[in-house]
Amino acid sequence: MQNRVTEILGAEYPIIQGAMRLITMGEMAAAVSQSGGFGVIASSGLEGERLRAEIRKARSLTGKPFGINIPIYRPNALEALEIAIEEGVKTITTSAGDPGKLIQRVKEAGLRMLHVVATVEMAKKAEAVGTDAVIAIGAEGGGHVGRDEITTLVLIPQVVDAIKIPVVAAGGIGDARGWVAAFALGAEGIQMGTRFLATKECPISEAHKQAILEAKDNSTLIAARKGYPIRVLKNKAAMAIRTMDESGASQDEINAYVDKISRVAENDRDNKLMSAGQVSGMIRKIMSVDEVIRSMVADAKIVAQNLGKTF
Ligand SMILES: Cc1cc2nc3c(=O)[nH]c(=O)nc-3n(C[C@H](O)[C@H](O)[C@H](O)COP(=O)(O)O)c2cc1C
């Protein structure tokens, strides 16, 4: 499949593995790119030299293009960009901040940039500063979501109508049905996070994977609506943060709690904060990254053909 998004990514399929902080490192990104998708190393929380090492690791495992994600508000955003340029990364995704801060250097170095947005307004701003595409994320998604909690089904067509650059849909996509639906809404690519969490290659704990497999449609919640909204699997830790947030705790107090629970054992399903999207309720099998991508590509053709027969 070739379209404007595969052209920007240099990938076979317009399927991006969403960056996941301290999870999607070089090995994971390489596995996705090697299977024809576009793997992304999360730079969030990494020291510069570790980021460089992960880029080199990915390069040693695949000759195909992969990217890095840079949360723009982080103090080391510019350093991460320079490392990407030095290491020959051609396409980056950016999130959480003003894309105007990085765009000049990105263009000067000849990189391509897709910026994550959660509203039409943010998408228009990203287009105006010159990003190559936007990744529009709905509130179903795992990890940080937009404050306005706009769902993918309504966000994508409105963003598509408002801008001319390509739109990648994210949030709630976990199989070929979601992919075809996103394209019906006008998206030209998809980004998935949670589906890639439940893969053999993903280095999260077995407890986190098991919680995704057992999840129902209503097993996630947005933990901190008033602070930095984040979608996680419901457990004791998630409920504690929600209670703090609703009772007016400051962001510093919530951060202190998050910091405390970040030290609990990885397999502690009650007290470990486990990000995942609502799509968890549809994921019933741990697959390899290659199986995820191959099955989606095969099924998407069938779903699209069946739609053709119905309409
Ligand atoms: C555990 C986790 C960590 C994430 N970390 C980041 C991150 O560092 N940067 C970013 O732009 N998005 C991050 N995201 C969002 C994903 O890249 C992706 O957009 C989202 O998971 C898509 O929704 P889905 O989970 O429904 O597929 C994270 C998501 C999860 C589940």
Give a verbal description of the structure.
By secondary structure, the chain is an alpha/beta fold. The protein has two domains: 4-201, Aldolase class I (TIM Barrel, Alpha-Beta Barrel); 209-287, no CATH class. 43% of the residues lie in helices and 14% in strands. The strands form two sheets. An eight-stranded parallel sheet has the order 1-9-8-6-5-4-3-2. It has a three-stranded antiparallel sheet with strand order 7-11-10, with no helix packed on it. Helix 4 (77-86) links the parallel strand 3 (67-71) and strand 4. Helix 2 runs parallel beside helix 3 (48-61) and helix 11 runs antiparallel to helix 12 (251-261). The longest helix is centred in the last third of the chain and has 22 residues, at 289-310. It is globular. The chain starts with a helix and ends with a helix. The model has no long low-confidence stretch (mean pLDDT 96). Residues 18-21, 23, 42, 44, 69, 71, 95, 116, 137, 140-143, 170-173, 191-195, 275-277, 279 line the site of flavin mononucleotide. The site of flavin mononucleotide has 29 residues, from strand 3, strand 9 and helix 9.
